[in-house]
Structure formats: structure tokens, C-alpha cells
Amino acid sequence: MNTITVLGAILFILMTVIGGKTGATAFLSLIFNFGLLFLAVVLISWGFPAMGVSLVIGTIILAFTIFFGEDNELAAKTAYVAALIVMVVLILIIFPVEHWIMAQGFSLEDSEDLEGMSLTIGVSFVGVAVTEAILSTLGAIAEASIAIAAGLSEIIEQHPQVTTKRLYVDGISIGKQIIGTTFNTLFFGFFGGFLALFIWFSGLHYSFGSVINNKIFVAEVIMVLFSLIGVILTVPVTTWVMTLEHRRGQSKLKD
Amino acid sequence: MKQRMQQHWGLWLTLAVVLLGLIGVGLTRVNAGLYRQTVAQVTHVSAVSHTATSDEFENKDVNDVQMVTVRILNHQHRGQTYQIKNNYTQSGAMDQAYHRGNQVFVRIPADRHSTVTIQGLKRDTALAFVAWLAIALLLLIMRFNGLMALLSVALNAVLFYGAIQVDLATNGGHVYTLFGVLAVIFAALTLWLVLGWGRQMLVTFGATLVGTGLAVIISLTVFAVTHERGVTYESMQYVTQVPRPLFLVETVLGSLGAVMDESTDIVASLFQLKTERPDIAANQVFKSGLQIGHSIMGPLINVLFLIFMADTFAMTLLYLRNGNNWGYTFTMNMSLGMVQSLISGIGIVLAIPVASWLASRLMPGEVSTR
């Protein structure tokens, strides 16, 4: 048996046993997301524009992650709308920055892996870098928007007459609670995986100056920063969407 | 009134820090003197040629040649200008076009007859700008909590750097011990900064260690049973030491933050529950913990999954366009990320019952009745 299959089976069993139906659907969303990621690469390799692919695939990934993980309808809907808004804002930041910083494709450190490969493949690697950056932020955005939306919808359920101003304060305060740990999830998630590269840098005595201008290092750091920006923006945006929903719900009640 | 004043000062202080930061970003345009490498600014570019190419897999690309005029900004050649030929492709996998105003690193050989070459773009200004944007937003929206989050990441980065130095000094001989201990310290330090010292922190800490530890034990067992079939260590990138230990350590460190994140959420909610309903039974607390865990785990596993997988994009694309089939492309590029995601996922799921159980048994009220 293949290691991936066995580990996958164990994860599925654990998620079902511990998480019940929610766990099973969450596992399903993981599989869908994998399929979508692979589809994104294949589509780009077929020549579809990277921006369009990231927008479409990103929209679907957010939907799977949010609607498969959250049962509360108001929370899920709010989280999804907010996550979409944040994704679009992030694209507007990521696109110009990637064209400015030019940390796309490969670097000298990759030479060994690139042996015998043709690099002139006619696909813009800057576009690929934009796609990578957008897709890597989606998980964090979805998680944060769900946390905020779930917290706020619970407050609305318990105090239906809560004021908009009060909701803002609550939203930001939930955000403050999650930001510290979310920050750590991102930091470890990105840098844990790059231990080998850092050992390479230190072992070959790269100077501080060459590290902070190194293509791979810069590409990785800006991905963490984009995710972080995404999570920070998610807090006020989700709160704002929730207040709109809440106000609409209230005016409906009055009619 | 006094509080109002303090809030006011806080806002002004934050704004001042943000503005100073922006000035700092601007200063990176004129920091060439700090670099050992020769830095130059592009003053003029002109296109030389433009040729369509096609490789053995019939990928169509365009080869461009441009003449780049640079003025040296530092060291002994300062003020001199050079003309450098730059070859680049439209896809730009390892090369790029330069534009007027770009700052670049150049190599000027001592021997007059050799040509001057561009080594790469100077990216510090753009990097500083993005960092500034993130930190400014963090401080403006989160204020003090944002500052603490930054502090914990900065401390972890210092520890990380220290551990790498020790690893190199010992030639990677004690990777497991070294990074195992580091993971424990990371967790303790981070949770201490987030939660402060106390029972809640200890419970969260315990849940993080046990959850991650169980995931490692399960994975090692699976590795042994399946003889690691399909785990392509040879495809690991940037490896200068034995790949297997490095991979396992990368996986544990990668999932550590997520497991802490989740344990913190669950334990905090359960302690809150206990404060609101002091008479609640331990079993009920345990069940509530599982309930909270249900909705957290899916999104959290997806966070790591997307981070691990997005990194493999460029290489996967290159494989596909170089005539490899899907199966081989997946094995060589995505399988390691997949294994990493699955092990992290197992850790994240297992931390739920562990955190709930520990919290239900170690709540303050429980201890006093003993």
C-alpha cells in the first residue's frame, strides 16, 4: 500500500470518528480542494491566463472550505461574502507587487532540480507567482472569516437588538483574540517547510544582504505577508458584512 | 477622560510608527552603501532583438535581448556607467527584463576584458514595502494585540535562527533532538505570550505536545508498515543534509502553529464555559470541546494544505510542460506536500479530544473537590 493512501485513510477515519458528519464533509472539502489546485495548474499549463484561473478556482475553493465547514447559514453566507471581498482586495495588492518584486519562477538554488528541463515554456511565471500567492492565502482568509462570522452570529442570536456600533467593537475584539494564534499558524506553516532552505543559506554563509534579496526567500516571505494582510483585512470586512446582514434582517422584521 | 487621553496617545503613537516605517521603506532606495555587493541603478534600456523560439515539446516562447545601461552606486566603481547585455524570455523562469529605475546587483570582474554581469534585482525596497503594509495594518487595527503577535513571531524567528546555527555546528547529527526540543520551546514561548502563565496555558501546551506527538507516532508507524512507498525524499528541494529527518522535522514545525491555534481556541472556550457554569460535569465539558473542535478542524487543515501545496506550483507546471504525465508530475512535486498535509491533519484532529479531555480533567473546579 502507498503511504499517502494509508495516511489519507487514517485522517478520514479520525475526522469521521471525532468530527462526525462535519468531519466527514471537511475531509471531502480537502479532497475537492486538492482536485481544484491540480486543475488550476493543469489549466495554466494549457495556456489559460493565470489571473482568470486564480479568480475562478479561488472562488470555488472558498466556497468548499466555508460551506463544508460551517453549519450556521448566516455565519457561512457572511463569511463567504467577506472572504470574496478580501480575496479581490488582495489580488489588487498581489498583482502589482509581484510585478514589482519579480520573485517568480526559479533561482540558482534550484539549478539541480532543473537539470534537463526546458525553461522556455511560454507561460508567464510572474502570473504563476500571482496564482501561488492568491491560493496560499485562501485557507487563512476562510478560517478567519468563519471564526469572526460564527462569533458575531452567536452574539446576534443571543441579543437580536444589538447595535451596529456594538457589533463593530465585538468583531474587532474577536479579531484581536484570533490574530496572535493565526499569525503563528502562518509563520510555522510557511517557515517550518523551509527549514532545508534556511540551512542551505546558513551553511553556505549567505550574507544578510543576499538573503533578503534572494528570489526564493523573498517569494516565501511575501506569501506570509500577503496571508497576514488577508487575515487582518478579514476582521473588519467580515464585521462590516455582518452588520449589513443584521440591518437587513432587522428591517425585514419591522415590515 | 484619562482613558480617552490614553487611547488618543495610542492612536498618535501608532500613526507615528507607521509614518516612520514608510520613511524607512523609502530609505532602502539609498542604502547601497550598506551592501558588500556592488549595487547599480538602471538609467537606460534599449531593446536589441526579439526572436520567437520553440523547444522540443513545442512550447512557444520569445527570446529578448536588451542593452541595459547602469550607473554604479557604491564602492570603488561608484559613479561609473556600464552597458550590459541582458537576455530574457517572456516566461521569465530564471531571467527578467529590467526597466529604468530598477536597482540591481552587478559583478564587476577585476580583469578588464571580462564582461560585467547583472546578478539579480535588488528586492529589498519592495519587500520592505509589503512588510510595512502588513505591520501598519496590524498595528492600526489590532493595536496592542498586534504588537504582541509581532513580538512572538520575532522571538520565534530568533530561536529558529539559533537552532539552525546549532544544527550546522553539529553537521545535522542531532536533527531530531535539536528540533524536537526547539518545537517544545516554540510552543511554550508562544503560548506563554498569548495566554500568560497559568493553568490554561499549561493545558493548551499539553494538548499541543500530545496531539503533535501522537501524529508523529502514527506517521512513523505508517511509514514503517508501508515502507515509505510514494514518499519521494529524493524530490525534496534545497537539501544539504540527510533528507528524511529534515522532512519529518519540517512537517512537525509546519503543523505546530496550527495545532497551537486550535488547542488555544478549544481550551479557552472550555475555561470560559466553566466560569459561566461552574457546576458543569467533566464529561459535559469534554463533549463541548469536541463540538467546538468540529467546526475548527476543517478550515485549519485547509490553511496548511493550501500553504504546503501552493509552493509546488511553479515546478509542477514546468513538469507538465516538459511532457511528463500527471502521475509522475504529482509524485515528483506534490507527494511530499501531500504527506506533510496529511500528517499535519492527523495532528490537528487528534489535538481536539486531547485538548478537550485535558481541559475537562484539569479545570480549576475539579482540582479543589479532590
Automatic annotation (TrEMBL), chain A:
Keywords: Membrane, Transmembrane, Transmembrane helix. The keyword Membrane applies. The chain crosses the membrane at residues 35-68, 80-101, 121-142, 183-201, 221-244. InterPro entries: UCP031503_TM, YibE_F. This is YibE/F family protein.
